[in-house]
């Protein structure tokens, strides 16, 4: 299937259309909302499901050297991408050191919903993928935060003072979404296919439909963010929200080349690198770099990069992956 | 009924900083506090709403703390240490309570 | 199946029984409640599901002249029924102009949950129906509101003053439930049977069970409303809550006659006309006619008309439809 | 700590009128406000509870607005324009704040 | 705008006792009250949080009641009859309202 | 299957592991939480499902003398167990009369989630069980509360004074969870297998997965309770949380002997007796015995007895049941 066909087909999937519905409703100032308690639970559900299924596949296939290699590459990328992002932002945008570091952190980390959307697209093409990619997603969440903190401090005298790095690492590492993803992965691993069979009617069958509802909600939140936050984004920053994922994707494609991942697995890995966090990293930034403006990083990650990845990015990353995958 | 004067501190603060704020209140040895959810608001940092949020950044909480007038200043200092760096506001008002020893 | 059999069977369906359970619990002052966040989400789910499925059927069958005709008849009825209701109320009840207009608005508009309950009954009789009836439901939601505003103004000097009709139309037209229903319909239309297949385990399989939970909640809210609101309803107003649906049903049966709908489709159309709004119109009335007492219109619509329609009305409308359907 | 006197306006209003109220507050150029959900209540218009409600009619919200005493009257006029027609109440109290310029 | 002095009673009480408290307020013939959910808190009886609770024990609510100064004492007595036996606190403050007859 | 194998298999089930995940997350002070609105709804769902399925089986099998006998034994145990628990606590722990009575009430009543977990284990062994056991669970919820009140009053002059027993019984008997369980049971009974078929994709298929999510939440709440409440529990009280279930189980095994229950049914009955309430009774105790410290009874029931029953208790009760069942 050609890239154009794939993109067209993706744009007409219920997932993308529900996101677009949410976006349109928010931009038109409709009062449609998904209650916060439900939005939080849908996110937990998606992480439970994707983590569990990943763990079950690792249980079926065992740990391989390749798995360790891919995780290592993922960690390195998560550390490195914020540095690249930071340098670009400092060069082309007028953002302060702290704002640039905070934005860069989001692009080094990953978005689990972007990842999930990509698994659906990959599955729609009947491409299998390595189950441990979920574990790669988990290990890529936090290194970027550390990178960003070092970058932020490079620019200013240390006044983070009274709150040390220890409590921060605790709060980030035991962040609810990380615990849910990793915990479900381990449980899936421990219980294997037999466990999956028991709860499949809950975590497998309705998964895509739940994803649609969650994407509707993300569209609503993204649209609201765009309405409020757009004036905080200069043209160079907006451009960064599209260009940076492409740079990350290109680097990830090169980095993954020698590892011999399947086409599906490579596409997912590239997607992870190209995705920008919108749950774990914003919360960490409010703690670690409270001076950084959330209107900038939240609007950019959720209002620019996420829609781009969901609609055009993922098909592109699948094509990129085709260049290097087995 | 006989009543006794106390101070009521009301803090609106972003959710990610809540745990730190409560730790500070503990450190200031207040006898208690109550956390109430906020739904939406506007301030210098713009509009926010918790509707539809799956994460914690972007949500706000309201913390109410009744304290003795004599201990207002040390409590305010702890509170201020958090709120000064984070998104939030602090107001203080006079209240009466029935059981003075409870606070 | 005879009308009596149908009614008896309906009264013993899980749907009606869960509604009755909620009603009984609330009247007995049990503290059973469904959290607000969940009630809102169940409503969103029902609209997503019914809208999407309707759209998929239109995708399969295309737009027909009959569809346009039925929509037109629906719009005319939604405009006309409030006038009839208003005149009856002014004649027999002591309600003020504003209260009468507000009540009448509810009866011109539609109740999507009554509609959904009717689709389940129709399906239980193995009767197919036209998918576009969902679109008819959507277009019948708002005209009644306009009618009612004109009626209310007829009675009093315009003091709506400072808030014009423009913002009101915006708020009503982009009301969350309307957006959800219409948006899902369009997405179902766009993605067709292939899209349905992707999310059917979420929006089709558990649908009836979710409906039971929602009806339990509606029973709880209706029972609470009856406990608090009963004293606001005089005997003529109470009677209106039963008689008006019958009048609407009779008119709808006549109006639909020439259009050649299927039996299932005709039953659903008659049900729409006979149903009274309890989500969109009350909110609109609070904005447009804040002087009207919500205790009257909410109690009547949810505490009298909805239970009547759910238990006896729908079987009756199915029988009525049998007189004119193909 | 040095504190400055402000006015705290607390409004309980039915949800469908919330957007209008907030627009009015914006028009009155208040520096901010916070919206807190209410769960249930009673007033002249009877008992209400938001439990189980799928729609917006029948729910209430509480809005808190800290403002300068000098600007209290214009703000109250805007607030009153909404609350007079809708279900709701308004109370005003004295509070102290730390950073006067914030409000 | 002309305003009138009233008393604002703010009660934080455990959820299982809420119905009793509201019955008492009715008995004291207050003109109204508003219930606001509380999320978490700390007091003499320790920390609590409503997060994740499927039952009612362990949750707290905040009740706000505006009343005439002349009727403060009888209302406080009814309130105290509940709160003295249950987990909770009561504070009283001065507020102004616009429409005196409403309260 | 040997007891050890059964216990090991149970410890590795997704249910127990998700509970453990919640426990670990709370003890490590992760900020993972399930929103309250969702936790309440999951509990409603579980009661709806278990009640309905029980009712359907009674519809299929009719009322038998044995059913009435088992219910009678259950009621007697619910009255008697608090007395035994109270005497033990007064003898070995330093708890006050009121605290001892309140704790004892929890152990005479039942935990519906423990019961549900047991049904899953029993089903996992392909053992059928009597559907009316759900009704037995319902009738065992409240007698223990009355026992405990009498015990508490034995120790102190009646100062419960101003609030009589009448309103209390009303509040306890019409407690939301009781209404949901009994109501769903009756609806299942009325609609029978045909009703079940209609809503099975909602109440049967995803049941186990939903249970996992609920157990995760219970783990989180239990862990939080353990962190805060541990210092309120002396060693004898802690011991009571393990020993009392064993005593209850032994008594229940003897009491059920003559009744000829199936192995599955007997295991469930013994589990009911051994389980300790954590929703209905705590709320009743806050009303009836507000002087009793919730930190003691909640922590003991949810933080000690529930984890014990879920992990080791239920397999043991199944083995015990094997001694007396048909
Ligand atoms: N000083 C205080 N300031 C604000 N809220 C308090 C205070 N003391 C107690 N509370 C609230 O009232 C609840 C019960 O208090 P207590 O009876 O002291 O445990 C606490 O959990 C808090 O939510
Ligand atoms: N004048 C005010 N009155 C009430 N709440 C306010 C006010 N100003 C700010 N807030 C609340 O505090 C939050 C943070 O304020 P700010 O730091 O100014 O953005 C706002 O989003 C509001 O929820
Ligand atoms: N005296 C009062 N104290 C606290 N809240 C009140 C009072 N009166 C009214 N309210 C709140 O305001 C809402 C509307 O009041 P009303 O317009 O009198 O029906 C009530 O439902 C309560 O939530
Ligand atoms: Na990334
Ligand atoms: Na109608
Ligand atoms: Na028991």
UniProtKB/TrEMBL annotation, chains A, C, F:
Transmembrane segments: 63-89, 101-119, 131-152, 172-192, 237-257, 263-284, 296-320
Organism (species): Microvirga arabica
Keywords on record: Membrane, Transmembrane, Transmembrane helix
Protein name from the UniProt record: Sodium-dependent bicarbonate transport family permease
tRNA-binding is among the record's keywords: no
UniProt cross-references to InterPro entries, sorted A to Z: Sbt_1
Record carries keyword Membrane: yes
Domain of life: Bacteria
UniProtKB/TrEMBL annotation, chains B, D, E:
Lineage: superkingdom: Bacteria
InterPro entries xref list: N-reg_PII (IPR002187), N-reg_PII-like_a/b (IPR011322), N-reg_PII/ATP_PRibTrfase_C (IPR015867)
Alphabetized Pfam families for the sequence: P-II (PF00543)
Role, per record: In nitrogen-limiting conditions, when the ratio of Gln to 2-ketoglutarate decreases, P-II is uridylylated to P-II-UMP. P-II-UMP allows the deadenylation of glutamine synthetase (GS), thus activating the enzyme. Conversely, in nitrogen excess P-II is deuridylated and promotes the adenylation of GS. P-II indirectly controls the transcription of the GS gene (glnA). P-II prevents NR-II-catalyzed conversion of NR-I to NR-I-phosphate, the transcriptional activator of glnA. When P-II is uridylylated to P-II-UMP, these events are reversed.
Name of the protein in question: Nitrogen regulatory protein P-II
């Amino acid at each position: 299937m050609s890239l154009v066909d794939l993109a067209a087909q993706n744009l007409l999937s219920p997932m993308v259309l529900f996101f677009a519905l949410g976006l349109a409703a928010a931009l038109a100032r409709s009062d449609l909302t998904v209650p916060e308690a439900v939005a939080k639970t849908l996110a937990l559900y998606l992480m439970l499901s994707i983590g569990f299924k990943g763990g079950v596949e690792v249980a079926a296939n065992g740990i391989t050297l390749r798995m360790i290699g891919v995780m290592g590459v993922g960690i390195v990328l998560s550390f490195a991408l914020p540095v690249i992002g930071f340098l670009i932002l400092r060069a082309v945008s007028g953002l302060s050191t702290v704002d640039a570091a905070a934005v860069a952190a989001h692009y080094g980390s990953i978005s689990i919903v972007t990842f999930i959307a990509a698994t659906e697209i990959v599955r729609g093409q009947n491409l299998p993928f390595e189950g441990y990619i979920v574990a790669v997603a988990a290990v890529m969440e936090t290194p970027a935060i550390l990178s960003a903190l070092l970058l932020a401090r490079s620019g200013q005298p240390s006044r983070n003072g009274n709150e040390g790095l220890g409590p921060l690492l605790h709060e980030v590492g035991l962040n609810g979404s990380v615990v849910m993803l990793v915990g479900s992965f381990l449980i899936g691993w421990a219980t294997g296919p037999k466990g999956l069979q028991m709860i499949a009617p809950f975590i497998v069958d309705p998964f895509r439909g739940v994803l649609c509802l969650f994407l509707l909600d993300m569209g609503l939140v993204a649209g609201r963010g765009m309405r409020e936050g757009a004036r905080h984004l200069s043209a160079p920053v907006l451009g960064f929200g599209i260009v940076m994922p492409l740079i990350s994707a290109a680097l990830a494609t090169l980095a993954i080349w020698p590892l011999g991942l399947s086409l599906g697995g490579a596409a997912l890995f590239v997607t992870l690198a190209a995705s920008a966090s919108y749950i774990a990293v914003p919360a960490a930034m409010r703690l670690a770099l409270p001076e950084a403006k959330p209107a900038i990083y939240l609007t950019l990650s959720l209002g620019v990069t996420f829609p781009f990845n969901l609609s055009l990015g993922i098909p592109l990353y699948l094509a990129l992956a085709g260049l290097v995958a087995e | 009924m006989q009543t006794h004067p106390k101070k009521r501190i009301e803090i609106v603060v972003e959710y990610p900083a809540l745990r730190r704020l409560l730790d500070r209140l503990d450190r200031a040895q207040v006898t208690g506090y109550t956390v109430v959810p906020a739904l939406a608001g506007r301030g210098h940092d713009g509009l926010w709403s918790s509707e539809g949020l799956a994460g914690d950044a972007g949500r706000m909480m309201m913390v109410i703390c009744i304290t003795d007038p004599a201990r207002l200043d040390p409590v305010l200092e702890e509170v201020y240490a958090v709120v000064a760096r984070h998104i939030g506001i602090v107001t203080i008002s006079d209240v009466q309570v029935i059981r003075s020893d409870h606070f």
